[in-house]
Amino acid sequence: MISRIIIVDAAVRDAYGHFAIYTEGLYLAALERGFAVRCAVSRACDNVADRFGGEKILNFPAWGNASLARFTYAGNWVNCGVVASEGYARLQDFDLTPNDLLLVHSIQPHELFGLGVWYKSVPQNLRPRMSIGLHTDAEMYAGDEDRDLVNILYAKSLSIFKEFVESGSVELNSTNDRLSEYMTGLAGCRVRTAPLIVPTDDFPHRTIKTSCTTKRFLYSGSSSEKGINTIYELCLLLRSNPLHNTQLIVHISQKNVAQQFEQAIGKVSGVEIISGSLSRKDYANLFVSADAILLPYALAAYARRASGMLSEALSLGIPAIVTPDTPMSDELINNGLPGRILTSVTPHAVRVAMNELSLDFDIRSRIANNNKYYFAEKLTANRYLSEVISSFKSK
Predict the structure, then answer these.
(1) Distance between CA atoms of 337 and 331, rounded to whole angstroms?
(2) Which has more confidence, 348 or 31?
(3) Is residue 11 within 8 Å of 108, Cβ to Cβ?
(4) Is pLDDT at 275 greater than 50 in this prediction?
(5) In CATH terms, are 4-208+371-393 and 215-366 the same topology?
(6) Segment 139-193, tens digit of pLDDT
(7) What is the mean pLDDT of the chain?
(8) Which of 394, 375, 319, 393 lies closest to 28 in space, CA to CA?
(9) Which of 60, 86, 164, 285 could cross-link 170 (Cys pair, CB 3.0–4.6 Å)?
């Protein structure tokens, strides 16, 4: 049974280019299916894994850019493959098991060889399943004098993978019928024609910038000792360890309590105090304008109106950070609404949850801002992931 998916992206040349976008599509598609997800990315793309909030492997030396590899290793593609295998060996930092599925996409000849060398060295009781997407334009990176070497690498790689393909632990995929047929014939190792794995020029290449929009977190509650104390300690933590591009809005209806609170925390960058009773319209606007709601204690600590606004915010898809004793936590779990359920209510735990949601917002905002391009990428990733999972389940 597949319980965890590890996305291996060795070919990312541009941290915000289409390979990175496709990786994000795979990541989101896997999360939506309930899998634990990890990323291993090339050093050109460390920040992609950062944005996902998952583990990452730094300086993953798989030499995705073949021209760079040729320059560095004077045309010796086999040496490039050996370097790639050393890079792939770092995947074992993830404590691999047969319940893991590696998704390796846009892989070139020397990387395929290196991947095979590494995969064969993994003990059978630890060997994960793997789906490999072949880069259909691999030969364009090689001059005419290198084509024989490319074919030799393909043949060597396929001979390594043949037993694993036959046993069902590995799938080789190409988006090109002719390449699938050619490589199947090259070493008798089946290469299937899969859905589009690498985006084509049907969609214009564009550089995606990380969202710098400030994320607004709202705490609006009574002056109950529990809730206010947690938010007070959170403000002190944010003063010494701030979150980038994040604003915490604290609404306290009692003006005297709000004044005492503000005096106690002093000036904290990114924290805004709002005091006093608000009209229903202003109260609704306050909730709806937030990117996320902080609810570190049960709804009993909230006024009835705040409870209703929270429910409405959740129905609009605005995430909340809650504790298991909050009635709304059931709604979060059962309806798959975005948010975080805290197992411990400490300022540090709240800050971590805020940071994780900020990373989610970055991904979602880029999807919204680049809707057409992202939509195509996400469809591609969803289709590919569905096929791969169905294929492995049938074995």
Answers:
(1) 7
(2) 348
(3) yes
(4) yes
(5) yes
(6) 444 445 556 667 777 888 888 999 999 999 999 887 677 778 877 887 788 888 7
(7) 69
(8) 375
(9) 164
Return the amino acid letter for 1.
M
Looking at the chain, list the stretches that DSSP marks H as alpha helix, in order from N- to C-terminal side. 18-32, 46-52, 66-72, 77-88, 109-121, 147-167, 177-187, 225-240, 255-265, 280-288, 304-315, 327-335, 347-369, 371-393
DSSP 168: T
Class of domain 215-366: alpha beta
For residues 101 and 130, the answer to whether their CB atoms sit within 8 Å is: yes
Residues 6+ apart with CB under 8 A from 185: none
Around Cβ 25, how many Cβ atoms within 10 Å?
24
Token reading at 14:
């541009």
Reported as a single tens digit per residue, the pLDDT across 206-257 is: 333 334 467 888 887 655 566 678 888 888 888 888 887 788 998 887 888 8
Q: Do 222 and 303 touch, CB atoms closer than 8 A? A: yes
Q: What is the dihedral of CA 115, 208, 218, 330, to 10 degrees?
A: -40
Cβ of 253: how many Cβ atoms within 10 Å? 19
Fold of 4-208+371-393: Rossmann fold (3.40.50)
Domain residue ranges in the chain:
4-208+371-393, 215-366
Please state the separation of Cα 230 from the chain's center in Å.
30
- Checking if the pLDDT of 130 tops 90, the result is yes
Which residues, 6+ apart, have CB-to-CB distance to 188 below 8 Å?
Answer: 158, 162
Q: How confident is the model at residue 344 (pLDDT cuts 50, 70, 90)?
A: confident
> What six digits make up the tokens of 70?
């040729």
The answer to whether residues 196 and 175 touch, using CB atoms and an 8 Å cutoff, is yes
Closest CA to 100 of 30, 50, 48, 163: 30
- Check: CB of residue 328 under 8 Å from CB of residue 310: yes
Structure token digits, residue 113: 């060889």
